[in-house]
Amino acid sequence: MNEAEREREFEEFKEKKKLKKAQMTAMQNLPYNIKVRRAEIRAHEFISTLDGMGLEAHVSVGGLDSITLLYFLRSIGINVPAISVSSLEDKSIQKIHKEIGVISLSPGKSKTQILNEFGFPVISKRIAGKIETLQHPTEKNKTVRHAIITGECGAQGHFAKNSRMKLPQKWLELFAGYENENEDVNYKIAPFLVSNKCCLYMKEQPCDKWAKEHNSKPFLGLMASEGGQREDALVEHGCNYFGKNVIRSAPFAPFLRQDLLQLAIDLKVPVPEIYGSIERKADGTLYTTKAQRTGCSMCGFGVHMEKRPHRFDLLRARNPKEWDFWMYRCCTDPKTGGKFGWGRVLDYIGVEWEDEYFPEPEQMTILDFME
User: Fold this and answer.
1) What residues does each domain of the chain span?
2) Superfamily of 31-111+197-275 according to CATH
3) Dihedral Cα 275, 279, 280, 282, nearest 10 deg
4) I want to staple 205 with a disulfide (CB 3.0 to 4.6 A). Which of 108, 184, 260, 303 is the partner?
5) Using one digit for the tens of pLDDT, what is the confidence trace for 149-168?
6) Strand runs (DSSP E) across 96-173, as ranges?
């Protein structure tokens, strides 16, 4: 294939991605009632197709989004088992799981095993995966490492220049020092490992094992509006996907956060205490009064974008002993044998954490004293 043919193929590839993105955006802009009806149709289509394949279905449950999905499926007559590695969730989520009959699975590895064996889940799944590749160079991933540093792709990346494969400059500066000699750059090497394998070992593998044993395929509470790798996969494959190695349904794929919260209200979904309650602002916007998102207590994806009090501040308020463990003592330094934790990671990426954070009280005005 010559340069002109490669360029044409790459342009066609970009146009297809652009079209799929436009289609998803159009679906996201549909009225709420239509999106709910479409989700019902997609869910029944998934069940019907699985029946024809001799397969069962289940719901993979975690936080509020997937709890709402379980209630939604039950409301439209789809009564399938719900599974979760509940021990990884907040105590209030575990409580709801027990109340609604979610089957609890054991994690594949412990949280401390993940951090010590593979590294810290920080920044985002996509970026953590790229940093992990840089931290474990091999002859086989040489081309990928070059793309991460420069954005220049090989045949699999349609020979793109300045592609999304390139790590943002901020993170190159902090994590890409392993390639200094190869790429004639002068970047830093972090004093800890980074990985995106936490969900794979702790959640995905136990759920996949259960699914295989029960000849079952999952409903997932994923939304493209969450961004990142989830958005990419949902834009590419849509609500229902029947691939060679992956079969799954994400009927909420076109939902926005407002749609999900409205559906939770409509279905009277029990809201775990960690989220607070669902309330409505003066402009009609729905929100949860406490956490907007939840996850494992040792997960750092996105923490660099959070305003204080961030997730680790909130953990400190809820459980000071657990906070102390994750911040200072969850890992063993292979070089010194000393203990360290998330504190080292947060310091390195510029996230404040060690000072106990108390939000500033709002300034009082004369209106506060008026009857």
Assistant:
1) 31-111+197-275, 122-183, 302-349
2) HUPs (3.40.50.620)
3) -100
4) 108
5) 999 976 554 455 667 899 99
6) 103-104, 122-123
